[in-house]
Amino acid sequence: MSFLKFFKKSIDKKSFEQLLADKEKQDSSEQPQSKETIKRSLHENLKKIREAFGNSSDIVTREIRIGRQGEIRVGIIYTDGLINSEANHNFVMESLMFELRRNEVDLKDLAGLTLLNYIKEMVLTVGSIEDVHDFNVITNAVLSGKVVLLFDGYEQGFAVEMKGGKERGVQETTTETTIRGPREGFTENLRVNTSLIRRKIKDHRLWIESKKVGKVTKTEVSIMYIKGIVREEVVQEVRSRIEQIDIDGILESGYIEELIQDDSYTPFPTIYNTERPDIVAGHLLEGRVAILVDGTPFVLTVPSIFVQFLQSPEDYYQRADISSLIRFLRFFGFFTALLAPSLYVAITTFHQEMLPTQLLISLAAQREGVPFPAFIEAFLMEIMLEILREAGLRMPRAIGQAVSIVGTLVVGTAAVDAGIVSAAMVIVVAFTAISSFMVSSYDLAITVRMLRFVFMGLAASFGLFGIILGLVALVLHLSSLRSFGVPYLSPMAPFTLADQKDVFIRLPRRLLIFRPRVFSSQQNTKREKSLFQNENQRKKK
Amino acid sequence: MNKRLTSLLFILASIMLLAGCWDRRELNDIAIVSALGIDKVDDELLVTIQVINPGQVATVKQGGITKAPVRTFQSKARTLSEAMRKVTTFSPRAVYSSHLRMLIIGEDLAKEGMGEIIDYVVRGKEFRTDFYLSIAKNTRAENILKVLSQLETIPAHKLSSSLKLSEKSWGPIETIEINQFVNELVYKGIEPHVIGVEIIGNPEAGEKIENVEKTKADAYLKFGSVAIMRKDKLVDWLTEKESNGLHYALGKVQRAVINVPCKEKKVAIETIRTNSKIQTKVDGHQFKGTVQLHIDGAVAEVQCERMDLEKIETINLLQKKAEEKVKKDILTAIQASQKKYEVDIFGFGEALHRSHPSIWHKVKKDWHSHFKDIQVHVDVDVKLRRIGTINNSPLHEMKP
Questions:
Q1: Which one, out of A450, A482, B252, B382, has a CA that is 20 to 30 A from the CA of A211?
Q2: Chain B partners of A374 at a C-beta cutoff of 8 Å?
Q3: Which of B34, B59, B96 faces A365 most closely, judged by CB atoms?
Q4: Exposed (0-12), middle (13-18) or buried (19+): which is B294, by Cβ within 10 Å?
Q5: Testing the interface with B: which of A358, A461, A465, A467 to mutate, by most B Cβ within 10 A?
C-alpha cells in the first residue's frame, strides 16, 4: 500500500512542463483556457482532441483494443512526422497489443497494481512516460513529439516520449570553417545540440535549464553553464531576461538575442553566436552561459566582449606564435575593412602631402578624366560591392557564378576602362572587401560594413580630422557598452593585466593558467584541475 | 527620445555638409609643383614653377614620352605670394607645392641677396621644408627648370636624386635643405653656403623633348661648386678643391675618394666614414682654430707597380700621404675663406660661442675681422681599415 501511496503522490506532483503550461494559461489573454480534465469516455476524449486540432491530417488518433479478449479500448494520439514511428510500432503498439495477450495476463489480478500502473511499469518498453490528466497538456505533448495514450474508463493517460522524424544530421559547419579543429556543427535539434556539448564536457557540473518561450511556438530554450565556474549573477540575469520575454513566437536564436541584449542602439553585437560546439564548450569552460534555442543551429553565448569577435577557435588549436601573428593580422584587417576607403578619400582629397611623390603622381594620373569626386567614386564602388555581396548571398546557388563574373567584369575592368572610376579605387575597394572577410565573426563584419560608410562621409567632409573624430566617438561608444554586466571593451578598458595573455596575442597554453577574470567567478579562476582542487581544499578546511 | 535622436542626426548632417569640404581638392584639380625657380628681373620677382604632368609621367611605360613630362609656368610680381597666385590666371589647376623638391635661385638674385624670398617658403603652410636649395650658376633659375632630363623623367626629381646620391659618394657635393640654410643664416658665427647647379650644353636644346631621346643629351644639369654667402648674398664660387676641403672640415663627406700619389701614378683611397670637430680656443689675445678630422678608409685602387700592401709600412705610408692630401685641401679652403672672402663658412665663430660665450659676445660684432687672422691648426687622422678583396695588386706580382 505504501508503494501505491508514493505513486499517487508522484502523480499529484506537477512536472515542470505542467507548471509552465498552467502559468501560460494564466498569462495568455488571447485564449483563456480553463483547466479541462479528460473524461472517462475514450470516444468523447478522442472527439474533443480531433476538434481541437480541427481534424488536421497529421494528427493521428487511433483506437486499439488490448487484453486477452480485447476488453480494454486504448486511444493512441500523436503527430505524424514528429515521432519516431518505428519505435512507436515496436515499443508502444506492439507491447500493448501483443505482449499483454501473449503473456496471458489476467487483467483482474495485476500483482497488486492497477491496470494503468501495470501498463506503465511492466508493459511499455520506453524511456520517458508522464501521466496526463488535462487536455491542454495533451495537446502540448502531442505537438512536441510525444505519443499520448488514453484508456477508456480512466481519467488519466500517458504521454510517451517518442521524438523522431526527419531531421538534418550533424554536418560540417559552412559559416565558420577552420583548417584544424572539429568539423561538426550544431543542428536544428536542441537535444542533439546539448548532447554535442555534453560529449565535450563530461562533468556533472554542466547544468542545463530549460524553458518554453513563445506563446504560440512554445519553443524550447535551454541555458547551459558549468556550475562553479560561472558567475551566479550572470546565470540569474540570463534566467530573468529570458523569463521576461513576452512574444508569440521564437523562430531563431536571433529573436532571443534581440530581446535579451543589453543595448539595442548599437551597431555592435553584444551577444556572440556560433554554430560550433567546440566554441561553446570553450566559452562554457571560461565561465560563460550558453543559450540554446530549439530549431536553429546557432547557439548564443553571453557575456561577450569585443575582442572575441576577432578571435577564432583555431587560435587555440594551432601553435601560439602563429595564432598571435594571425590575431594581429585580423586586427589589422578589421581596421582596414573599416577605414581603408575613408583613408583613401581623406588623403587624396585633403592631405596629398602625406603621400610619397611618386605615388601621388601615379594616383593623379589615374584620376585624369574621372568624372566624380573621390568620395562619390568610393561610395559608388562600395555600394556596388555591397549589392554584389548581398545578391550573391540571396540568389540560387546555380547562378552565383554568373553574378560574380558580371560583377568582376563590370566593376573591375569595364568601369576602369571606361574611365568612370580610377584603378586605384578598385584596388582599395577590393582590399577592403577582402579585409572584411578576415573579421572572423559575421556579425562584426556587418557592423564594419555599416560603419565604413559613416567613416567615408566623415572623411569626405573633414579629412583625417573627421576620421579621428569618428574613431574617438567609436571608442567612447564601445566603452559605454556592456554585455550582461561585463564591459564590452574589457580586458582593455577596464584594463586587466592578467587577461592580456589571451587578447591580442595568445600565450602558450602553459602560461594560460587562469581563466579570463571578466567571466568566471572570482574564487575559481585556475584552469588546471580547478574543479576538484578547490573542492579538496574546501574539504581540508 | 525619437525626436531628440532625429534632431541630433539632423544637426550632425548639417555640420558635415555645412562645415566640411571647404578645403578639399581632388587629385585632378591640383598642379603638383616639383621645382620652384626664382629670379629677379627689373625689380620684380620672376617665379618659374615646374609642374608635373601626371598623365605623361605615369604612362611612360606604355608608349614612351610623347609630350613633355613637366610644364613650366612663369609670372612676375613684387612678392612671391602675388606671383604664385597670378599663375592661376593661366594654369587650369591650383598650384600645390607640398611636393616641392628643388628651390633654385637665380645667380643675379643670389648676388643681390635672397633673404626676401626665404620667408615665403618657410612660412607657407603648403611647403614642407625638406626640399633642397640650389643656386643657378652663370644663368637664371628659369633656364634650369626648362631643361628636360633623362632616366628620371621629372627634372626636379632628377636634380634631387642626383644631389642626394653624389652627397653620399662625392666629396665636393653636399645637399642643402632649406632648413639648414635658414639655420646658418640665423646662427651667429657661421655663414651659409649653397650648392650650385649649372647647365652643360645648349640650354635651348634642353627644352625640347628630343633632348631626352638621345643617348647623350644636348643639355643637362650638373651640380658643381659651392657658393659661399655673406649673410644672404652670394660672394663667390669655391673651386672643386676648396669645396672638397670645406666638406671634409665640416664632416659632410660620407664616401669619397682621396687620390694619393705613388711614384708618378695614383693610389685611390675611399673613405668609409669621417668624423670632424671644429674648435676655437683662446690663447691670450689670439684665437686659435683647430679642425680635427678622423677618416676611416679603404684601399680602392692601386695603379703603381711594386707596392706591397701586405706590409704595415706601406699602409702607414698611404695613411700619411692621404692625411697630407686632405689637410692640404682643407687648408686651401680655409685660406680662401679667410683671406680671399673673409667669410666664416666653417663656423669658427660658432665654435667660439660654444666654448667661450663671454668672449664671443665681445667680438661678435666684428667677427670677420678677427676671423681672417685666426691661426688654424688642421689635424687629420686617416686609418685604413680594409684593402679590398685582394691583398697585393696583380701589378705587384707582375713579371718584371
A1: A482
A2: 26-27
A3: B59
A4: middle
A5: A461
Phi, psi of B63 (to 5 degrees): -135, 20
Nearest C-alpha of chain B: how many angstroms from A274?
33
Which residue type, as a one-letter code, is found at position B303?
Q
Where do we find the cell 648674398?
B233
Other C-beta atoms lying within 10 Å of the C-beta of residue A199:
11
Measured over the CA atoms of residue A36, residue A38, residue A44 and residue A46, the dihedral's sign is positive
Greatest distance between any 2 Cα atoms in chain B: 104
> Using CA of residue A78, residue A81, residue A83, residue A88, what is the dihedral sign?
positive
ipTM of the complex: 0.84
Residue with the three cell numbers 559608388: A380
Q: Give residue ranges of A with CB < 8 Å to any B CB.
A: 348-350, 352-353, 357, 360-370, 373-374, 457-458, 460-463, 466
Nearest to A289 by CA among A486, A440, A445, A443: A486
Return the domain boundaries, chain A.
2-161, 190-315, 332-487
Residue A11 is predicted with a pLDDT of 43
| Model pLDDT for residues B211-253, shown as the tens digit of each residue | 888 888 888 898 988 999 988 899 999 988 899 899 999 988 8
CB contact under 8 A, A461 and B32: no
Please, are residues B151 and B182 in contact by the beta-carbon 8 Å criterion? Answer: no
In 3D space, the residue among A98, A68, A64, A99 whose CA is nearest the CA of residue A78 turns out to be A64
Cα separation, B375 vs B10, whole angstroms? 77
Check whether the bond before B400 is cis (ω within 30° of 0). Answer: no
Q: Name residues whose C-beta falls within 8 Å of residue B47's C-beta, 6 or more positions apart in sequence.
A: B36, B37, B38, B74, B75, B76, B77, B80, B83, B84, B87
* Euclidean distance between CA atoms B167 and A7, whole angstroms: 103
Average pLDDT over residues A475-503: 89
Whole-angstrom Cα distance, residue A283 to residue A501?
16
DSSP A96: I
DSSP-based three-state secondary structure for B274: strand
What mean pLDDT, rounded, does chain B reach?
Answer: 88
**φ and ψ of B283, to 5 deg:** -130, 95
The dihedral through the CA atoms of B124, B130, B134, B140 has a sign that is negative
CATH 3.30.300.210 residue ranges of chain B are: 251-400
Q: Given the C-alpha cell 555534453, which residue does it identify?
A: A198
Q: Using alpha carbons only, how large is chain A's radius of gyration in Å?
A: 30
Tell me: pLDDT of B60 over 70. no
- The CATH T-level fold of domain B251-400 is GMP Synthetase; Chain A, domain 3 (3.30.300)
Distance CA A252, CA A254 (A): 5
Please tell me the distance from the alpha carbon of residue A340 to that of residue A359, in angstroms, as a whole number: 16
Which residues have CB under 8 Å from B158's CB, separation 6+? Answer: B149, B150, B151, B152, B221
Least confident piece of the model among A108-117, A394-403, B90-99, B190-199: A108-117
Do A75 and A138 form a contact (C-beta atoms < 8 A)? Answer: no
User: What residues contact B239, with CB distance under 8 A and at least 6 apart?
Assistant: B225
Q: Which three cell numbers stand for residue A15?
A: 512536472
- A14 pLDDT band, cuts 50/70/90, is very low
**Helical pair A190-200 and A277-286, crossing angle rounded to 10 deg:** 60
Identify whether A494 is preceded by a cis peptide bond (ω within 30 of 0): yes
Q: Which residue reads 613684387 in cell numbers?
A: B78
* pLDDT tens-place string over residues A229-264: 898 999 999 999 999 999 999 999 999 999 999 988
Where helices occur in A356-441 by DSSP H, the ranges are 357-367, 374-394, 400-407, 415-417, 423-438
> What's the grid cell of residue A103?
503473456
d(CA B76, CA A243): 82
Q: Quote the minimal CA–CA distance from B27 to chain A in Å.
A: 5
**Which residue from B23, B24, B54 is facing A368, i.e. has the nearest CB?**
B54
